[in-house]
Pyridoxal phosphate homeostasis protein
Amino acid sequence: MDTTRGIVHALAAVQQRIAQACRTAGRDPRGVRLLLATKTVSPDKIRIAIQAGANLIAENKVQEYKEKAAALADLPVERHFIGHLQTNKIKEVIRYVSCIQSVDRMSLVEELDKRLRATERHMDILLQVNTSRECSKFGLDPEAVPDFFKQVAQYDTLRIKGLMTIGLFDTDPERVRPCFRQLKSLRDELHRELPATAPPLELSMGMSGDLETAIAEGATIVRVGTAIFGARFYPDQYYWNENENKKTT
Ligand SMILES: *Cc1c(COP(=O)(O)O)cnc(C)c1O
């Protein structure tokens, strides 16, 4: 099978998995968006997926947006950021994306606000929550989320659209389920504090191996890479750890 057909088939298969998971969970499939995690994927492959109907992509590194920007400039697609964001990359990242899913500390919020003010812009954000403390250094502690949410809500350059988590890195979805459940319960807790008219907060959770579980637990955005584009050369640790040169297996 050639590359194009491979990607088109894989995309359709993932869309079917999402639809089936929604049926099983008694949810409306329109309530779940598929985000393509495109780290390490070449622009021509990303283009194939977009032309086959994908409308939301995300990178983990600003550098990859930069490298692929020209080749994908003509494509109508929503772009998010899902990687660990360093404050010195903010000026650049806001050129490429409409939503940053990995906001997890006040220094980032302050710098984002400063940059957005300077360019008279707004940005959608999700708060990244660390639901698997033993495995990840990133994301807010779950207990810190309600206060952090209130603080960030003071910044009118930022629109908090929901919560994101990576969850436990485990091939058994049942072991990841408590992470998803925790994110949803945090979201419900936030909802209780918000006016009834406020739009529901998104839950960005679930990846290639566990999207069904995430949907059963309430995911509204699933982030899928390998199930569509195949295995990556770099281990995910390379993208998820702050100190990229240090091996932390
Ligand atoms: C790579 C990545 C994904 C997708 O993971 P797959 O297992 O390839 O589907 C989702 N979320 C984040 C933050 C990622 O870095």
Remarks:
- The longest strand covers residues 158-164.
- The beta strands are 33-37, 56-59, 78-81, 99-103, 123-128, 158-164, 202-204, 221-224.
- The chain has ten helices and eight strands.
